[in-house]
Design goal:
The protein is built from eight helices and 18 strands. Helix 2 crosses helix 8 and helix 3 packs antiparallel against helix 4. The protein is about 25% helix and about 20% strand. It has a five-stranded antiparallel beta sheet, with helices on one face. Strands 16-12-11-17-18 form a five-stranded antiparallel beta sheet. Strands 4-3-5-6 form a four-stranded parallel beta sheet, with no helix packed on it. The protein is globular and about 80 Å long.
Length: about 350
């Protein structure tokens, strides 16, 4: 039937060829049998999850997917790793990349767009939170303060953070009585050569938390509920990512009750899908993985807080079947013609 032509074409692109009916099937004008010869001893695709030196075995959350895929786990800046020996390299717990963004982006380019996921161009775009100003989708209002820029006027309760950051490091929340502390943090960030972000604190997070929607290859996999992490009039306290590690994160990021399984309202799903579609149009393909973090604005409508497409924790353990869905998306990425 002509209606099934797209499906037959999809299988053909993956290497399937027409074959006679098999098993209990007989000839039918409504059926087409196809087969894929794997070949005796055909090597399985080689997959690597890229991590950081603080977690050389990778994050616990990624382990079920890594096992399902037979993936190696390797440190992204380990000079002894031959990344060209892998068919696919997936950035996972590379949570130290902000310490030397230039080196990390150079590594992404060296691994290359055919092999690295997400693709180097998307990672470079997403690694600096100034991307918020480039999106058409509604975002949390954001002022960028580069080194040498005058300090902006501060109104109401604000959040200050670096434009390149992970794990809520150097991130603070300040009420009007603590605006001098906010200015001090902006000054410290810009004095180090970085750009600061200044955003209004949306107090809906204190009631509803954040809603995070996780997508694999452009399709919604699961939804998470994340509670507020910033205390009033303070910079988030830090702790080591792992015992003895120099990599620091906000202590709240390691608290076991930070994230739980959640649900999303239709307007939240619509906004998250809009963000994924915009990124897909910009870069020519959907991200293999992405987490879309949303808050409700002062008018009650959802806005984008962050798009996480570099090395987000996907919280696979919070949603039944999520690890399997991620592994399936990775396998589809390896199909002929997809890269």
């Amino acid at each position: 039937m002509a209606a099934f032509a797209p499906a037959r074409a999809m299988y053909a692109r993956a290497g399937f060829t027409p074959c006679p009916p098999f098993g209990d099937h007989g000839p039918s004008p409504n059926s087409t049998c196809m087969t894929l010869v794997l070949g005796e001893g055909a090597p399985a695709p080689r997959i690597a999850f890229a991590t950081c030196s603080a977690l050389p075995g990778g994050a616990d959350d990624d382990r079920p997917a890594a096992v399902a895929l037979g993936a190696d786990v390797a440190v992204w800046d380990d000079a002894g790793v031959d990344w060209s020996s892998y068919d696919l390299v997936i950035v996972r717990s590379a949570w130290d990349y902000t310490e030397d963004l230039g080196a990390f982006l150079a590594w992404c380019r060296a691994v290359g767009p055919e092999r690295l996921r997400n693709a180097p161009e998307l990672i470079a775009f997403n690694a600096d939170k100034s991307y918020l100003a480039a999106l058409d989708a509604p975002t949390v209002p954001t002022a960028l303060v580069a080194p040498g820029d005058p300090l902006p006027a501060l109104r109401g309760e604000v959040v200050v953070k670096p434009s390149v950051s992970a794990g809520a490091v150097d991130t603070g929340r300040f009420s009007p009585r603590a605006h001098d502390d906010a200015r001090a943090l902006i000054g410290a960030i810009t004095a180090s050569g970085r750009t600061a972000l200044v955003q209004p604190y949306l107090d809906a997070v204190d009631v509803h938390g954040e809603t995070a929607l996780v997508f694999f290859a452009g399709h919604l996999s699961h939804v998470l509920a994340k509670r507020a992490v910033l205390g009033r009039d303070a910079i988030a306290p830090r702790t080591a990512l792992a015992p003895g590690s120099p990599v620091q994160v906000a202590a709240a990021m390691l608290e076991p009750d930070l994230v739980a399984g959640g649900t999303a309202q239709p307007d939240e799903i619509a906004l998250a899908e809009r963000v994924i579609e915009e990124v897909t149009q910009r870069f020519g393909r959907p991200p293999l993985y992405a987490r879309v973090d949303l808050l409700r604005g002062q008018d009650g409508r959802p806005v984008l807080l962050e798009l996480e497409a570099v090395e987000p924790c996907l919280y696979l353990g919070q949603a039944p079947g999520a690890a399997e869905r991620f592994a399936a998306a990775v396998r589809r990425e390896l199909a002929p013609g997809r890269r």
